[in-house]
């Protein structure tokens, strides 16, 4: 009966976990008027039904301290967040209402969780040494394991966000590690993390492709802006000739685009896809250009509007290019500093995990 109860709760928790990562769960909790405190007590009750109240209180306390680390770091960076929401048999989460400005800020936010989580279970050490109660060994092992698991270098875990400032390529290492962990200890959470991590790895592979697309869009817009500015300096007869030339060029471009239309294999045929994208943007923008400059149109209104739209799009493209280029950029000393901090915390947590597990193994019959 206990196993059946746990299975049902775990199933519902997995659904909530996926929803939380897709940012649906926060809307659900808001709709049901659930506060952070209520979700905390629901989690304690769910864990208590399966493991007993002592374990439930200890686990939720450890999760709470971990999330408070994230909230503290977000406050230091001036990033607004939601309240912490606790999900039985999954953990807890907070949602950032603004994206960090850089991978360095994201790493700072992520690192604070496991760091505070480590500080959260340290009081169990003197309590075990003074009382000899193996329950405190359980708290040590549990706290260390939770935070060590979160340091796996794979999104959406904290380790994946820290790895971003060191090198996003570490996500592929984390993906392989999480897959190996799932094969060793199958469970409902690992597949979801693997799925979300694989999506992030795919985004990394496509980052250069997205940068090139934004660059192409910007180049096409700049080319058209130069054309329309030159057009405005011509006489009416010269404008009409240019308009006809644009019509001919557009007709040829549309025929070429129709000839090239086919499905391309991502990564392997990116260059062909980018060439088609350039042609698509050229056709789209020339349609707008002809509409703005068609013979007899009120050019005093349509042409300046078209120029303003182009200038705005060029600015947006430039911002997109800068964002993709700069977000994961960091100085070498910054990368090394974060690598050292990451490895140091991972080693500390691994040692405490082993120590806590040793206490549990020695006192297994006494732990309740």
UniProtKB/TrEMBL annotation:
The keyword Transmembrane applies. Its cofactor is Zn(2+). It is found in: Membrane. One of its GO terms (molecular function) is metallopeptidase activity. Pfam families: Peptidase_M50. It comes from the Bacteria. Residues 221-256 form a coiled coil. The chain crosses the membrane at residues 6-26, 38-65, 108-129, 135-154, 166-183, 189-205, 336-356. Residues 55-129 form the Peptidase M50 domain. InterPro entries: Peptidase_M50. Keywords: Coiled coil, Hydrolase, Membrane, Metal-binding, Metalloprotease, Protease, Transmembrane, Transmembrane helix, Zinc. Belongs to the peptidase M50B family. This is Peptidase M50. It comes from Geobacillus sp. (strain Y4.1MC1).
